[in-house]
Structure prediction request, 812 residues.
Amino acid sequence: MQYPANKQVIILNPKSDHLRMDPHKFALWLFLGTTFMLFAALTSAYIVKKGDGNWLDYELPQALWYSTALILVSSAAMHWAYRAASRDKTEHVKIGILSTLVLGVGFLGMQYYSWAGLVAQNVYFVGNPAGSFLYVFTGLHGLHLVSGIIFLAVVSVNAFRMKIHSGRLRQIEMCATYWHFLGILWVYLFVFLLMNH
Amino acid sequence: MAPEAQATLHEADAHGRDHEHEHHEDSFIRKYIFCTDHKMIAKQFLITGIFWAVIGGALSLIFRLQLGFPEMDLAWLQPVLGKWITAQGKLDPEFYLALVTMHGTIMVFFVLTAGLSGTFSNLLIPLQIGARDMASGFMNMLSYWLFFVSSVIMFGSMFVEAGPAGGGWVIYPPLSALPQAIKGSGLGMTLWLVSMVFFIASSLIGSINYISTVINMRTRGMKFSRLPLTIWAFFLTAIVGILSFPVLFAAALLLVFDRSFGTSFYLSEIYIGGEALPNVGGSPLLFQHLFWFLGHPEVYIVLLPALGITSEIIATNARKPIFGYKAMIGSMMGIAFLSFVVWAHHMFVSGMNPFLGSIFMLLTLIIAVPSAVKVFNYLTTLWRGNLVFTPAMLFSIGLLSFFISGGLTGIFLGNSAIDVQLHDTYFVVAHFHLVMGSAAFFGMVAGVYHWFPKLYGRMMDKKLGYLHFWITFIGAYMVFFPMHYIGIAGFPRRYYSFTNFDAFSSFADLNSFVSVAAVATVGVQFIFLFNFFYSMYRGRRAPKNPWRSNTLEWTTPVNPGHGNWEGEIPAVHRWPYDYSKPGASEDFIPQNVPLSETPESNLPHEKKALESKKK
Prediction:
């Protein structure tokens, strides 16, 4: 027989007596795990290739320092927006989310500018893997960041519709988790590049 | 049922009568195509997996004919294979490479990963932990449809002008990276990579869903220490998948860049036709590291679900508690962990530092410990049990046999010194076809026989099941056992023909024997297919609990609807292996029976727990 739509089914679920997390948040954490594994694979490939020899030495573009600063500030803004949401300061939520978004776009722009710095040194995507790896790291991280910016845009639309407050925190909480993760991921990549250069 | 739910149902019924035709079509699409019910998604995975198994099996027969009977006139295959059969009636050598590549890819990924995990994780996780459905029905549907897209692309790649991918299922560069190397590195290879991207996405979404369901959706009383071993196996498999598939993605991504954008991650100093390629600085070994970091865990992604299914079936049909429940969980965890630190044993002869080889050899041989724990636990569960030889039980015992005989040769191959001789010979082919191929296949078939009543509400025919088992079991050994000798004699795998080597002529008969056995073994699978599809419509109607089993899926109606249980979800009061408990009137006590109802069979610690609860 066909049971009615999901909503009623959930009502029928008996209360559980053990560990139970929000399935959406939990799935997000698992997704972050897969993203981390992707970059762990790439960075370990970098080390293996570097140890192999035939490696091109070049300067890391100055722009990467600025972009790192930008993403760290954006993480702080995100956290500020989240705290404002949990205290129902809706105006602050809007300011915080929008500034996170702007800083995120600025980060992407700065990453793109760093590619110009590479080209100035004659390091192209096609060429010695030493250079190609940097393009892959920044490019793939940038793609993830684009998805984060889309997420931020969704959250900010909801913030302007007054749909984010202390009673409805899940979306902004998940967005903050994702955004902080992307920030930490970039710091990891940057420190990794500084140390293995 | 909640009152508001009933109201909705009535409304829907009234609506349905008004527009009966439209309503019906709507529900067909929702029910069979874009379905979010985990049981239907399991069936979708199973049917797609069976389709792929037929294709993969057929491909293996074509190259077995070539290997067993190199002089044979294959012109009769021309209507199917077209230009891949030359004018002389011979198989095109490059197409031979494509055949072995596609056979490996299809069997490893599409049949034994998606077909096995996809079917049984989806079917059993909600049913055995007591959940209405998966954590996210939508993600579950997405997982199947990404797999479907991946399947369509992979299937389509077999019909392109230059043929499908031909660089082996491991797609080592530079062969796979340079389209000018062989035909199979052209468009076919591109489609292979695109298809695998969809496959990886499907597998990751599926795994995320399995893990969050097992952790978050268990019913009352279903502690981790009361989970059936099937669920433990699926859970650990999903974790292994989440950690290893992104690495394959990274490997494939860099390969795509090398192929299509001209980067040099895997390429360096290559001459083709006397002309140097511009690529400098890459390393093909890098790909092998990345690939096998997935590739080895993948072996356990294939095998662990089969072992979980077998644990459940053997305990049920031996009418005995599984021996060493916690040791079984521990050994599965050990295998899952070790699977990540042994990848380089696939690369002993790839030019690796020999000292590194010794470390990987040591780690590889340690896997024998948890594997042996599992084998002994299966044997001790069978020991003096009241064995019920259902087809599922026979296939489970078959798995055990393959796990032992195939596992033993793994100890040979794990030695870096012996591997110098045996690497890439038919000895390796024999090893993994027994321990991973046949064992996982038997686990999958055992699962189908055992849970067919839950899938379709009917029983499969027992006698056909016995026939299927005995011919497949003997046939699989006749195919793969002689390969050990062929391998020790030095036959390399993936060779089109051995007729040019005098040293190999004395083994020509053995190769013909293997091919005949392969044709017979694959042919017998049609008995299974007939049994499967016939029983789906005409099989004997299944009782509620046909195997007198303890787990929760047998407390649902014979044909469970979306939501699985009609009333409240049963709570769980005991572990799933209370078979033949001393003092009990029946030889099984389902998990949902409270201790207070079985005072005659409670063990001392259970009595104590019961008393402390009353206080």
